[in-house]
Amino acid sequence: MAKTASTSRKAEGKSPLEGKKAPDFSLAADNGETVTLSELKGKKVVLYFYPKDDTPGCTKEACSFRDGFREIQKKGAVILGVSPDTVKSHEKFREKYNLNFSLLSDPEKEVLKAYGVWKEKALYGRKYMGVERTTFVIDEAGKIKKVFPKVKVDGHYEEVLAEL
Prior knowledge:
The chain has five helices and ten strands; from the N terminus they run E-E-E-E-H-H-E-H-E-H-E-E-E-E-H. The protein is an alpha+beta fold. It has one domain: Glutaredoxin, CATH 3.40.30.10. The strands form two sheets. Strands 1, 2, 3, 4, 5, 6, 9 and 10 form an eight-stranded mixed sheet that branches. It has a two-stranded antiparallel sheet with strand order 7-8. The termini are far apart.
């Protein structure tokens, strides 16, 4: 179960603003551990939200972060991927593509809502709720330094690295 400091936000659908404190959370990771954002204070965090494990765009995005992991680490940052998929799904996805960072499970969508990335989407005229691919760069003090909304996967890793 996800725990967030701001699950009662009335501004659901709005991303937290740059310069504001990042909403804290505790989520289950693909390795069975629990990751709490506030425990990463002192490190930069690349927190990226994606729709679904093992789909073309999400795989491409995850693999670009995997391939650039060392460069991001050199900048003093950790990478965390978040989606509503289960821990088991994340575990299979991580193993299949040899991902070298944690994938966090938010099946209740509390953290997705706290960060304003659980939104109404449309496909072929059909409306549905889903994750809007978004990345947050969080500084060592736990503040949101940069928000990349509606991420286009091609070239995104390079944008994130430049922001660090």
